Amino acid sequence: MGPLLRLVSEEQAVLEGATVLVPHASIAGLHDSELRSLGLPPRAALFLAIEAKGTLTSSDFRLLVTLRHIDGRPVSFYERIGAELRMGSTVRTLDAALFSALEAIDGFNASPPTDLDSRMLAWAAIKELLPEGATDKYLTEFRVASAPSFTLRPFRNEQGEPDFDPVPCQIETIEGLDSVEHEAREVLPPGMQKEFAASYRRRTQVPTRYAVGGGWFLVLPPQVKKALEVARRAQAGSVAERTAFLKNPRAFVREALGDELNEEQLEGLFWDEGFSDRVKAVGLWQPKVVPWYSQSASQWMPPEHVGLRIGDVELRLEPTEVRALAADLEGAIALGTESIRVEEVDVPATTDSLAAVRQLVDVLDRYPSVEVVHEAEPQEALPTVDEEKPAKLALLVKDNLEEVEYRPTVRRMAAPKVRRPGNLATSLLQHQVEGLEWLQDHWIAGHPGALLADDMGLGKTLTALSFLAWLRERQDEGVVGRKPLLVVAPTGLLRNWRDEHDRHLLRPGLGILCEGFGAGLSGLRTTKGTGGDLAGGLPTLDVSRFQNADWVLTTFETLRDYQHSFGRVSWGCVVLDEAQKIKNPAAGVTDAVKAMKTDFLIAMTGTPVENRLADLWSIVDTAWAGRLGSLKDFLGTYENEATEERLEELQVALTEKPPPPLMKRRMKEDHLHGLPERSLHVRRIPMPEVQATEYAKALEYARGSQKKGGMLEALHALRRISLHPFADASTSDGAWIDASARVHGCVEILDGVFERGEKALVFLEFLEEQGILAELLQRRYRLTSPPMVINGGVAGDKRKSRVDEFQRRSGFDVMLLSPKAGGVGLTLTAANHVIHLSRWWNPAVEDQCNDRIYRIGQNRPVHVHHVLAIHPRYQDHSFDVTLHNLLERKRLLSRSVLAPPAATDADASDLFDATVNAGR
Question: What sequence ranges are listed for the domain Helicase C-terminal (predicted)?
């Protein structure tokens, strides 16, 4: 039966010929689905703020009414015609509770009775429409909220059991240029919601009206009241009953109210807040298995190496082992075995693993010269699951690895472009203005995300903060609903984000910060203990604290461990700082970020390709799922056939079309004007006799070794000796310095820095040498304390305090840093010298190190020093020279096209040939 026939049959409307006359009171009582079917305006997501003027015994007693949006903003200008509310160009329909209250109050105010008895009778009629307790003491001020719908907030209670609280809400309609979306808005502020949940839990019956403190009152329509009675019985039930209800609450409500409401009305009654559309289930997380192989220098030759990436572990395979592994996996899957062990690595016995291995078989089959075992007998596979490791119940996402399972909907937003947010305290440079406008274009076009891949030091943080401030202004104007903003960053950059926010935005900035990391988690937990969400597959943090926050700051690891809590929140924007943290498409942290429910995502990284082109795919598929196709197709098109033409084609697709381009990448030398000169100094220092002797011994051993893995072992030995022939400091400072060409050259550079009263950064990855050098430099330059060190063992807050101290102190200073730990996110512009005492295999990492000092804020000429240890016999075939040449070639190529800068197996082979095999 249609809504009009229902109203007529229930005598809520009158049929006159072909016309149905429907009173406004009946319109207000229609369900949301019935409003849509009749083409009437959607429901207004509003509440009433009511204040009394005068006393009831006075003839001038009046009730003043303010309509407010759910976020508290008053409706400035509106016109009400019965149940229809016009707010400028927006038209909405009032629900029954708000309509009845407004009708009664407007009627009372329009014709107030002159005698006290009449006023009392009129007031008694109004009281029937208002919550119990709202009229105490002649009613001073209160707010009435109506809840035409509700959702659930699941959590794990103090006993560690699945539990939930209901959350009354209204469904807000958001109209874009070519789309309409519906979002749930909580009708009560956090404190009142907490009181409602407690009152709801205390009572065995569900009343129609609740007084929830602070002058707030909640009114429940009849159908919502009945549905909440169903939820209350489940809440008071056993663990099994609560668990069953949480799995499918709509089924319970349907069973109780199915005779009274149709399916569409039931859908509107209970709002499933749920997770992102990209989340397909909550289930046991298995490490993902992704195939990889390194292409030979000749396209006619088979791959030099193949393997599997299993989560964060990389398993290398011999080509002859691949087909045997496929057979083993087929047998294990048939037997129901969970995993099989290969080279001390557990390979999940899943269809995904088998598909990955079969991809490698297909690749190898293209080259008949490869000897593969075609008839390997499957071995009996034994379970290898570690019983001590607890199962992880994670958000399982549509990962787009094998095929494109998920593409987000593009919804254009009806929003004017504002070039600069009003509370920006810092003037943007031209390239930052362009970056802000580019992000605005993406957001207005309704795109799901974008990749800001500017070079290090171009001020990506300020660009992102400017966009977030602009978006918050749009939220405050009501262009879109107000939602919290989420920033995800490495631990070492959290304090930097707080400082940058306070420096660049006028108060209140983005609003009050909720720290979702470290010590801040203790105040967010709903249960005792320190475990995350993955053990029970339910939120263990107070999700309402996130939902009602202005902005939230967290780490990638925290988001992964508490993904059920973060994933329940509808974010206005998510910013990923140093997005290379999600470069591995098989990692759990990548899946967790992909599971977030957000209107827009900004991925920021200065190194979009750090090791492989798959890094770029993983980041882009998080920002804009499906944009680069499936990983399987992407690897086949670009990585496995990585010609320069293909890479240029990819770069054009990312940076030039369609407008706006998906990725924006600018280099400092092209866009950052006003920086001082930067000079590169390469010093060739002859090895002293003791170092040359040890180097020659290692070289001869490498030439004679035939064991597996001998090439990498030899390169590592030559690399270590080229730094210093001894790992201890049993000799004097002078003897230890003179035993190494590199250390000798480094100290010579530092002597000059000391004489000029400047500062230097020394990048050195080996921890033993860091300790030795720190003590040596303290003695040599008579420092009051050893030079500060930043490596992987230094916590994020300590890193920031050491950076601040280094920036603040005057005069000569030196800091020792590991390339990976100190090369990301730190601003150390007090120094103007960088010395690479040991070289990283990846030029992108080395460039990150240089950019700690060559960035916005640097006022002095910058000097980058490379010290090369030269063997007196082998000269240009010395390890340092061949590595330097390799890094320079890869650096040049990576800047011209999206070529992976990290060292490959082919690079290692070339380096071995140039260093070990040459010059015999």
Answer: 745-912
